[in-house]
Amino acid sequence: MRTTFRTERNVFTNKDVFKEGYDPDEILERDEEISEYIGYLEDALFGETPKNIIVYGNTGVGKTVVTDHVTQMLSSEAERRDEGVDIHVVKVNCGHHTSSYQAAVALVNAMRRDTDREEIGKGYGFADAMDMLYAEVEQREGTVYVILDEIDFLGDDDQILYELPRASANGYVERSHVGVIGISNDYTYRDNLSSKVKDTLQEDEIKFPPYDAAELRTILEDRAEKGMKEDVLDGAVIPKCAAISARDSGSARQAIDLLREAGNVADADGRDAVGETDVDEAVTRVERGRLKDGIRDLTAHGKHILLSLARAYGRQETPLRLKELLPIYERVARGAGSDPLGEHRVRDHLADLTMLGFVEQRRTNKGRAGGQFYQYDLSVDAEAVFEVVSE
Ligand SMILES: Nc1ncnc2c1ncn2[C@@H]1O[C@H](COP(=O)(O)OP(=O)(O)OP(=O)(O)O)[C@@H](O)[C@H]1O
Ligand SMILES: [Mg+2]
After folding, report:
1. Is 327 a member of any domain?
2. Mapping DSSP to helix (H, G, I), strand (E, B) and coil, where does residue 282 land?
3. Is Cell cycle set as a keyword in this record (predicted)?
């Protein structure tokens, strides 16, 4: 039981170093990708039409952090040279603005934030939003690089990718240039673009491979130096976090999460030494955190259905059939103030939940008399479901 605040931490000197938005002053182990990036961006410095670029790579491999870094370098270099070429960078995360229209509005607002013009709300069409965006771009009298991060979220709605690269050709901007940088998790993203978009975009590609264990060790050592006390880490901790993440995903995010959680475990225990077993505990915690994020991202009815299964599981009534699950689900949905969906929609949701790995679906064959039917069971930790739902 704690009755006072600590005056000093056991493990950390600065926990922010392990947070998602932390800006590492130094990008490590990405020299090749940075060099390729610089090669493509350079045209803009000479006042030429900027190249469009799409960056590909799995989650956590540094796409966002490297893009922020090189575009920042580009605009400061333009400023330093002071040769009349102004370069501005504006970014939207399509994960939060999932249509071309929403992305356009977000870009207008991001650009207006540095001006005395007011941000816009809803009630405009896509064309209006694009007009306002072009007006902002034109007003800069320079090159504007538009970063569309997590571009996959736009899905089929790729209109903004058609419009932006043609801004000059169509005469929407005359004194400025527009370049586009798209960032995608999906290597097949380009294949799904409409052919008119492909034709206008004419982009260069940069691929970010997963990190190997050695690269992850370098990144982790740097973070530990910046955010943890000296000598708190057992020599095996960083290699273990790096090895697990390299094997699993090649993601620096996962590796950093593991190291932070291992530190948290020791810190909460009142120890100033982090050991290998803390990493084991960290693995469980990080997985649980990811699972909970996944549950949070479900639709309302997806959550209701999962909760009904978790309740049935808690009462040892699983696996069960759809018709046995339905009454539980209906109570849960009504309890949450929503109208329950019909049987067919619930079955669709169950299929989605199965695909996402939350639910297990088994075909049971009871012979000629009983027939064939599906039974469902929960395939994730029920506690995690209860915890997320009670939020
Ligand atoms: N080369 C690196 N040097 C230092 N830190 C890095 C490096 N690569 C990634 N990181 C860190 O790892 C985390 C994930 O990186 P980032 O957000 O850039 O991944 P991403 O490829 O954009 O992933 P996602 O597709 O999920 O958006 C961030 O905290 C970032 O600071
Ligand atoms: Mg990213």
Report:
1. yes
2. helix
3. yes
CATH code of the domain in which 126 resides: 3.40.50.300
- CB neighbours of residue 303 within 10 Å: 21
Q: Identify the segments of the chain with pLDDT beneath 50.
A: none
Instruction: Tell me the best of 26, 64, 185 to mutate to test the pocket of ligand 1, counting ligand atoms within 8 Å of each CB and taking the most.
Output: 64
pLDDT score at 365: 81
Ligand 1 surroundings by CB, under 6 angstroms: 20, 22, 24, 27-30, 57, 59-65, 185, 219, 252-253, 256
Say whether both 317 and 360 belong to one domain.
Answer: yes
Q: Which of 152, 159, 130 is nearest to 54 (CA)?
A: 152
Q: How far is CA 28 from the centre of its chain?
A: 20
Report angle CA 76, 82, 84 to the nearest 5 degrees.
110
* 163 and 88 housed in the same domain: yes
What is the Cα–Cα distance from 234 to 229, expressed in whole angstroms? Answer: 12
Which residues lie closer than 8 Å to 274 by C-beta, 6 or more apart? Answer: 11, 232, 233, 234, 237, 262, 263, 265, 266
Q: Which two structure tokens, joined as six digits, stand for 101?
A: 């229209």
Q: In terms of residue numbers, what domain contains 172?
A: 31-208
Domain finish residue from 295, 313, 348 = 295
Residues 63 and 204 in one domain: yes
Domain boundary residue, one of 270, 295, 320: 295
Name residues whose C-beta falls within 8 Å of residue 4's C-beta, 6 or more positions apart in sequence.
none
pLDDT the model gives residue 122: 83
What residues are neighbours of ligand 2 (ion), with CB under 5 Å?
64
Nearest partner of 148 among 112, 120, 117, 179, judged by Cα: 179
> In angstroms, what is the span from residue 74 Cα to ligand 2's centroid?
19
Classify residue 108: in a domain, yes or no.
yes
Q: What pLDDT score does 192 carry?
A: 87
> Which amino acid belongs to residue 289?
G
Residue that has been written with the tokens 């929403």 in this structure: 102
ω into 209 cis (within 30 of 0) = no
pLDDT digits (tens, 9 = 90+) for 105-156: 999 999 999 899 999 988 899 999 999 999 999 999 999 999 999 999 998 8
CA trace torsion 269, 271, 275, 280 (10° rounding): 10
- Give me the amino acid identity at 342: G
106 vs 90: CA distance, rounded Å? 10
